[in-house]
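User: Hi! I'm working on a homework problem where we have to compare a predicted structure to a textbook description. Could you give me the structure for the chain below?
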Amino acid sequence: MTTGDGWTAAVRDRLAPGRLLPLGTAADGTWLTERAAREVLDRAVAGVRGAVPGPLRIGAAAEAADAGPFPVPPGGLPAGPLRIGAELAVVATGRPLPETADEVRAVLLAAAEGLGLAVTEVDLRVTDLLEEAPATEPAPPPPDRTPPAADDPVAVAVLRVPGVAAVTDALGAPVHRTAEAVRVECAVAGDRPPAEVARAARAAAAAAAPEGAAVTVVVTHLR
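Assistant: Happy to help. Predicted structure tokens:
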């Protein structure tokens, strides 16, 4: 693989939204992209002394008993408990390995709770023991792009919600409509609780959508 191919693959992986994770409860009708959650969780792990984050995935911890009153978006998980599976390397610092693992597990659970994700299990796997921390390279910047148009009345209503940074088009149009449902994509300011902002955005979107439509919100970015 050439350097250019590697850069392109890194950008593609960074921009891929991954699974859509239930945000809050089944009654909220809101989801968060796995990519956005992973960025927050990786930073939490990197803050643990001696821990070097590796691949991390989030999936269902158990079969959901009830999909809830809202349609699950394509690629989304229905509401229910979630499980984090994470790999990490550990730098030799004289600290016992179980102590580092326990702290990583604790910060992952706390970070997930702050996002509004119902994580009940964290499965860690230590893949390497290092003599020193590896040099880190900055992630490649995303390609320049024009923000999506936001003249749809539902998008306009969502943009007025405090904490909504933008409407987005990571999964398609910012406002996706069918005969019976409306789905809105948005970015949330990183200093606001995503679940709280998403609930408010869904309420605003529902007020602007056709009466009787099932309105859902997908948070694609945390800025």
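For your comparison, note the following. Confidence is low (pLDDT under 50) at residues 1-14. Helices lie at 3-15, 34-46, 97-115, 153-159, 194-208. Good luck with the assignment!
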